[in-house]
Amino acid sequence: MALYEGAATDELTIHSLRKTLSLYAKPDLRQAVLQMINTFIPYSALWGVLVYMVDRKYPLVWTLSLICIASLFLVRIFIFFHDCAHHSFFASQRANKVIGYVTGILTFTPFTYWQHNHLVHHGTYADLDHRGVGDIWTLTVDEYRAASRRTQLAYRLYRNPFVFLGIGPGYSFLITQRYLHQWKGKNEHFSVAFTNLAILVIIITAGLTIGLKTYLLIQLPVLLLAGTFGVWLFYVQHEFEGVYWSRHETWDPVKAALKGSSYYKLPRVLQWFSGNIGLHHVHHVLPRIPNYKLQQCYNASPVMQTVKPLTIRKSLKSFSLNLWDEKQQKMVSFKSLKERVK
Which residue range(s) make up the domain with 312? Predict the structure, then answer.
């Protein structure tokens, strides 16, 4: 089924585009349950094997191999969590909330609190006048130059790959998700408190059964590796060469979706583990499309296929894209600032 026959991208409105894609914004209970089966069962089995291997001091290389695989399954579990936040995984809102809380506990992320921030992100991404909630800290060239030395240093550290992919995931999932920063509503308070309590119960139970040391030797590396992969995915989905940013008065939702979000073309196995989230431009056009229908939607939509894929190799350039240059309308590096001075 062709969704658009020769329609020019610049003639589209977000309403017409979403209306056309709405066919795919219908949750499928069978597919959702199947995804849970093919993810939770292997993840649980890997945990069982890892407990056995850690207790019997198997060679580190074997243990780390399984930990890496388990971390990929945890990334996939986070995608279910993400879909539940958009009420797209199940048709039942109650089911979305229940599974959202369960997957949130497994990923150390309070469901309602994260959901609120993430939905704000969907309404403000690529908008230079509404940055700061649920997104990657991004400054313009002029803002960076006008900032204090302390702010410039903090920004450089934040954008350093060793920080945002090394320290960042641990800091985010282990520390900052444990308390509220904003949105201090009753539901957000409850989600943080409930998630923290559930994690504490799991830690105590693990200490009384498999042993606290065994639990930590598995949980921490699995969570941190999954966090690193997840943070990179989120980063490269909105920070890449050719990305779109605009001031609020000229912000275009179609351009924001198709040019402000990447199509990160991953190898099939990584696309499976990441729940098709690389098709991020499709997701941002219509967030109610569940992860298990994103590829199908992309295949049927000529408009979605107009977005140039971002390969893993090309995505590595994102490491050096640090600031938005409003004059050139593109992301530039810190190094380019020194070259201009010369």
Answer: 9-341
